[in-house]
Amino acid sequence: MEYFFFIVRRLMWSLLVLVGLSIVIFMIARVVPGDPARIALGPLATTEQVANLRHKMGLDRPLYVQYAVYIGGLVRGDFGQSLLTQRSVALDLRTAFPATLELVLATIVIATLLGIPTGVLAARFKDTWVDNIGRVVSLLGVVTPSFFIALLLQLLVGYYLHFLPVNGRLDPSVSFTPDITGLVLVDALIRGQPGVWFDGLRHLLLPAISLAAASLGQIARITRSSMIDVSRKDYVEAARAFGIPDLVTTFKYMLKPSFIPTLTILGLEFASLLGNAFLVEMVFGWPGMAAYGVRAILHKDFNAIMGVVMITGAFFVFVNLLIDVLLGTVDPRIRIRGARS
Amino acid sequence: MKRVGITFLALGAVWAAAMASAATTVTLNVVQIFGTIDPAKVTDYTGYMAAVNLYDGLVTVDKDGAIQPLLASSWEASPDATTYTFHLRPNATFHNGAPVTADDVVYSVKRLLAIDQGPSYLFKGVLGPDSVTASDAHTVVFHLQKVFSPFLATVPLIFVVDSKTVQANVKDGDWGQAYVADHDVGSGPYMLESWTRGSEMRLKRFDNYALGWGKDPIDNLRFVVTNDEATVRSLAASGELTMTSEFQANETYTALAKMSRFRVVEQPTGTAFYLKMNTQVAPTDDLHVRKAIACATDYATIRTTIYPGDALAGPLPAVFKSDYLDTLKEPSFDLNCAKDELAKSAYAGKGPIPLTFTYVAGASFEEEIGLLMKSNLEKVGFKVSLDPEPWNRITEIASKVSTTPNVTEVFFGATYASPDSMFFTQYDSAASGTWSSMEWLNNPDVDKMIADARATTDPAQQAAIYKKLQQTIVDLQPDAFLLVQKVRHAMDKCLTGYNYVPVQSFDYNFHNYSWTCGN
Lengths: 341, 519
What we know:
The structure holds 2 protein chains of 2 kinds. Chain A starts with a helix and ends with a helix. Chain A folds into 2 domains: 2-75, no CATH class; 91-340, MetI-like (MetI-like fold), CATH 1.10.3720.10. By secondary structure, chain A is mainly alpha-helical. Chain A is built from 15 helices and no strands. By secondary structure, chain B is an alpha+beta fold. Chain B has a 6-stranded mixed beta sheet. A 4-stranded mixed beta sheet of chain B has the order 1-10-9-8, covered by helices on one side. In chain B, 50% of the residues are buried. The interface between A and B is large, with 53 and 53 residues.
């Protein structure tokens, strides 16, 4: 029960964080140079037209009134109108968010499936050539910007080898709208269209690999160092002394406690990728929320900026909460500590 | 019998497959997203790129800037040029099959003026909500509130929407804005097939297009949104791209030219590149200072090395043939001339003259021009402060004379096919306070000449005014006239029909293109 209240407390704090975030972003969006009404109407609009639109948008009202109106709308699920796309931000996000989510999910899957074994192997064969290769690969992944990897893959695989597509979510010849969940791979499966699924996967691979490199490196490094720490514990020595096979010791007794910091990192990576995917999205013409957010900033599209930040922020908070719950499940000591705090 | 049926089915499948492969698709990259496809709200080049393919106006513009029939097969103006009557083609239909009528034109104009965005600013004081009437189903009359001689040149920007469909989808008196933002309600040569915002737009050919189709038309259009040079090259290498945007880097054009499939097509445009000088603040309020800056501009290096273009002698590019003053002398780089002019200025002899010089942050060629100008200007006695600013910020600082820099690098192209678009927007006092009029010229003689040209219906008299106006502006030297921009595309050798049109993105009307390599 105490743990339940701990979660509720965390939830309340999360709400406060979101309110704070909304105030900060609302203010920042308004000090970015450029008049949004002028940008929306085009360079040749008359001063009178600009003034009319400013009035229509409520930009001539005090900031606190503008904020109150915005929050009022937000509570009703209304993110306002986008100046850039001339339609509701909620509608824009409904199509852009799943595209980014699909990309980020694929990224996390790749990073996890490759990062954890790399970390485990590097720890198991510490200070051997296996470890050295693992460390170099991890470090390269962390320090190389994802857009650079994206360009490199694009040139190599798209330009020279023509092996995988380099733009968009589906081939131009494929007529398919992912209107069930917004995720091409999931919707194609639901509708039983394996051709579309395969085409979607081919389009997803390069952007996901580009984005996964940094997370992969991070996960591998954290897993390695946690595994090394755990390997020095008494119970691991005891397990070895009892003659339990090495594979069982590594994966059954060492990996689970070592996974705690990795899980935390995974959660943070997952949430931050939502906002950080924009360069990769730009390079691969991926119609996602991150690229949408950047365009919104460049066009000073207030409502779109707020929408993207609030969704990313909410997701960040939600994933953090989820990780707390998961950590409590993986390690009961965390659950007890949380309940007592 | 069963076997015959199967044979027919198989033949049908083969025929269908052959027909499917016969469709030609042109894929073109664009460097910014399609903001809106509502013709009453479009403002930028991608918006107009969609609009000219989805919608038709009463008239359109050809490569020479001449007005050509479109939905209207003919038109006439009253002797006093305040009434224009357009006769619609009887066979024109919207994409849903409904006929295009005079009522649709009346509604489209009312809608444009009511929404008060997009090109509506052109009609302020010229058209009111009741200025357009339908005489019969195929005749529409425009009653102008005053003589406005460039009127016909602005008509191509009035795109006609299917009034019945729009009215059926009006919500809360929004003139159908929510609906038209996502749906095509036009009669243009192409129909909207799909649109993934931020990624791509696909259009398909409208078989029943009123103007018909010539030989080897383009069946499908795909606009891919990407401004990444590596992506453009990869798309070209993989055979996916047919035509690049006009905004690629030199390296991309060079790389594509080396691919056997591509050729690079280059044409002069109606867009000029200026150093706009604020004539109301020190020291550029002094004519001799402005002339000194013009003399210290290394035009040849800029045009040949930094940014390819043709020579520009005055405020008007030569594309406006009949109104162009061809006796203007091409400006030249002469540091002695700059020193002499500076010596005549009121600021001479007081040490280095401070000068603020602004360009678009991130535009490397503009930065190179800025550095070149700084180097040359400091040789003759200026102290130049280079201030790169984001474009949004430039539009903001241009709104006040006190915040407008001494010199700003600005491109400007005609919005409609008339010199009025170049003169009024840049030099008329009524247009002050925008990025296009950062000169703050506020000259009564210039204002009068622009007004006189607008009120004159005689083309010869109008041309005479415009020529005098060009000389006056050159004498006042509010700008250093850098160059006329060239437009470049790398395009598949099989794709023909591209011609630069001096209005918005009208050169991307793919009804004028064809695929010459068979299928």
